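Name: RNA polymerase ECF-type sigma factor
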Amino acid sequence: MLIEPDIELTVDEDIVLWHSISRGDKKAFDDFFMKYYTLLYGYSRYYVSAEDAKEVLQELMMWLWENRATFVPDTTSSLRQYLITSVKRRCFNVLRRQEKEILEESSWFEQEQDDYYEFIDLSVVNELQSLIQEAIDELPSSYRQAFTMHRFQDKTRQEIAETLQVSIKTVDYRIQQSLKILRERLKDYLPILAIYGFIL
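Structure predicted for RNA polymerase ECF-type sigma factor:
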């Protein structure tokens, strides 16, 4: 359970000190800063890191100095409560900012991953296309003609037979032999070829 610091200062000492600060007394402000710093620093450390705690107190003290003429506490108790509440609020702001930064970094990392895998996918596709084309180019000419017309030109076996002036049975044989050769040539890539929709 968090116990708020008990800051013991006399009413006269505290209020008189602040009245001097409100008139621009830098030494009085330095005394005020040193008097409260240790206790408020310890309190802020319940919430944030040492570095963030120092920054919180620096920002708070800077705000107090800049607003010394308009900020007029009625009592020591009200001044003490204001300082504690301000430290707590500023610590929470730090935590919210850090949470936002973590979420933004996470989002950036996910986007980087997406871009990376998109690049990898494109690279794989390009490599597979090259391998497939090389394997097809190495087929015997008659096999390559029949296979290319069947697989890439969407011609029927009848149309291929008429174009090549061979029987449908011969067309079937050439296509089957082409597939057999390609499967052997690309056997190490068959699973990934299937993923990308090229079935042999």
